[in-house]
């Protein structure tokens, strides 16, 4: 089947025939049998000089008027199939890896007019641009014409560097869905759009209409900025504004000029933060500027310019208020914004809240970029001011809608301005040709109300970051990031968090990661010790901690993937530490009273690294629920694996706490009569008891699911595509490669599941044990609302599952009318059994 696409070109019509070959091997065989492989000539420059006129597509720039089709030659020529025309020396353009087969024919209308004796004479052919130092321009029209005349379906012309990978990676030209340069709607240059009057300055000769349109431009830019933050490109969002592209034109318009300048400076700062944090890998188009004017002369003074405009409008607003109170002053004494005195106060308020929001948001970005978190307190004050101005912007919507000519409609939710009017000075096709690295995408600009909600959430996320205490305790930092990620922050706040945490290879730009590790080991004596800092294992662990903080600041999908890959590094260094410890000090693992400092540090470093390895593994498993990676038939194996990992995590945490308490005893008072059973006397913190709740929940759910699978034959979904063992490896392959935990395989899971019975689940009653632990934890976490909320969720899951377990046991798991399902109604990671009878 052949698809033919036509576009108008210079003096003719270019028709592209895209053919589908039967198979790749058939096409290669046909080419190898009939045509010799072409030789790739020296690449010619494909970028037109600045003086060349704009064209619909870069590939059409060198197109020539229709020419007579050359007669097929009996001899094959280099670079062509059978019967192609010979390419003159010096004019042998190189065919790239993309598949391109086209045929040139005259336009039928032009052909009929040229055949008429009274028709006008054809114009001279367009001249080829002059050659430069970087390349030589060549007319490829005869070559393309000869190729089209000669090639059959399934054949193609390609260079020696052609490969299937190159063909799959190439962008197909002349296809509107793939080629950003073929779009013919809109304008081809900014000057053309300006000449057409799409962006007048002033926006209207009527001063009232001018201020209305200015507010519409500001609101639409506000929506464009929110859309850009969501992952679209600057070229298709903020810089669709012609006023922003040509700032020199609006120098006489004080309000619009000041707003555009500070907006451009803010965008540049945000790009700098995201590029530094490198959290944009999942939104790789975010930081691409496409050559847009992000830096302008005078942008460093944007705040002073905006403050001047704000002061002028504030003075006018005060005059309006004083006139309302007394008739002594009139508006003629001040330079009003527009001509209607009754509307002056409303427009002043609407403009002021937008300008002030822009000013405070710029301060937020600037203060949060200061090193070592020095500007966080000031940034938090500006966040509060931003939220207040957003509230004022919402209040101004009613006034602006009342002054617009558009009546309220059902589609008001999609309006990008507060007034509901369509803004002037924007064209979405202006920068579409700058998007050559990617196919064109239709960008839906966020509605103004959605943009308001986005910035409210963004500011709340930034406020949480600003409230961070900059505590150098790594455990608290990891807990903060995990809690922060629960709100699903967007790219910008995650970038700010990462740049705050990791600066110049230090935590908060202040604390060396080797000192952070020594604090985690509860060994303050070695903080700043040069020998400890230069230790090979400490240096490697410091790098792993740095990477861990960066990984935790990415989005959920990237975070899980990278955490899984980093497990291999953590597991490797733990094994190396254990081998080094055995080599130096033997098999002793218990805490001894007379052990030297080197031995004690080595042991604690090993336990600490193993604890964080299992913490990463638990995080990896939990994120699978947030990404909906597990099906109900796989819950049993997932909760079983989580139960094993949580047990190991508690074990390593208790060893670390025991070693820390031992260090405290030695530092406080040196005694010879240390208790042999110090483990029993050590009060473990509430974090261990919370982990114990997770262990009981995971074990209870896994045993309940295994018993249901065994007795009622439910939650078994055999697949024709893969077996249960293959699904086990798909989910836990990264854990298995890192041997986390050791000696845990699919057969271990099958053996544990085979021994599960409903009677055992009732006997141990894991959910009831959780309800006994939670009251003591509530007192410990009284000052931590986040952990109290977590406890309430766990308590609800345990209570509902305990009731469901009693019902299943009473009715009988083998009852055919019994229907059991699992839902995440109370906790995002631990399911609740729902029992029904059909």
* Poorly predicted runs of 5 or more residues: 1-124, 670-681
Helix- and strand-based class?
mainly alpha
Residues in β-strands, percent: under 5%
Helix content: 40-55%
Number of helices: 27
User: How are strands sequenced across the largest beta sheet?
Assistant: 1-2-3
Question: Rounded to an integer, what's the Rg over CA atoms?
Answer: 35 Å
Note the overall shape.
globular
Number of strands: 8
Mean pLDDT: 79
Pfam family, one: Mak10
Region (Disordered): 1-136
Main location: cytoplasm
Family: Belongs to the MAK10 family.
Description of the structure:
By secondary structure, the protein is mainly α. Among the domains are: 190-326 and 344-404 and 413-465, no CATH class; 470-584 and 597-629, no CATH class; 686-837, no CATH class. 52% of the residues lie in helices and 5% in strands. It is built from 27 helices and eight strands. It has helices spanning 24-34, 108-115, 141-150, 164-169, 190-195, 207-229, 242-245, 254-277, 302-325, 344-368, 376-403, 448-466, 474-485, 491-501, 513-520, 530-533, 536-552, 556-585, 597-626, 635-668, 678-681, 686-711, 724-737, 746-754, 758-764, 766-780, 785-811; strands at residues 2-9, 12-19, 102-105, 502-503, 506-507, 511-512, 818-823, 832-837. The protein has a three-stranded antiparallel β-sheet. Helix 8 crosses helix 14 (491-501), helix 12 (448-466) packs parallel to helix 14 (491-501) and helix 19 (597-626) packs antiparallel against helix 20 (635-668). It starts with a strand and ends with a strand. Residues 1-124 and 670-681 have low confidence and may be disordered.
